[in-house]
Amino acid sequence: MTMRRMAAMAGGAVAPIALLALLFNNQWVVGAIRDGDFDYSGGIGPLVATLQFPQWRVTAGEGTWKYLFALDFTFLLFLVLLGLLAFAGARAIDPRGGVLGALVTGWWATAVAGGVAG
Fold it and tell me: b/e per residue, 32-45, with b = 16+ CB within 10 A?
């Protein structure tokens, strides 16, 4: 694959995860869900709990600054690893078979980056 396509694939892997984390996994949304009467064990609860993995915080709140740094560092590490793994995995994709290979490579990069960062 060309360098431009590889960079586009890496950006396409990082952008949706970063957007989801910034919109739905910020400290205010996560705090509202946890403070509310939400059941994590039934219905869509396990899915919501899984999707709350890449969290970011702006203020430490009741926690310490070390905890805040650890959360934000793992979030940034996750995004960097995701981009690098998607970029590296794009070299293995056949340009003519593209879509399915790109989807599998993106999911692979997300799972590995989440495992390392998480």
Answer: ebeeeeeeeeeeee
- Residue 25 is classified by DSSP as S
What angle do the packed helices 98-117 and 3-24 form, to 10 degrees? 50
Give the separation between CA 9 and CA 35, rounded to whole angstroms.
37
Give the Cα separation of 109 and 77 in Å (integer). Answer: 13
**Do 81 and 14 touch, CB atoms closer than 8 A?**
no
Residue 88: partners with Cβ closer than 8 Å, 6 or more residues away: none
Sign of the dihedral defined by the CA atoms of residues 68, 17, 109, 13, in that order: negative
Identify the residue whose tokens are 């919109």: 23
Residue range 6-62, pLDDT digits in tens: 888 888 888 888 888 888 888 888 888 888 888 888 888 888 887 777 777 777 777
The CA distance from 102 to 87, in Å, is 11
pTM: 0.73
What contacts 24+ positions apart, CB below 8 Å, involve 34-40? Answer: none
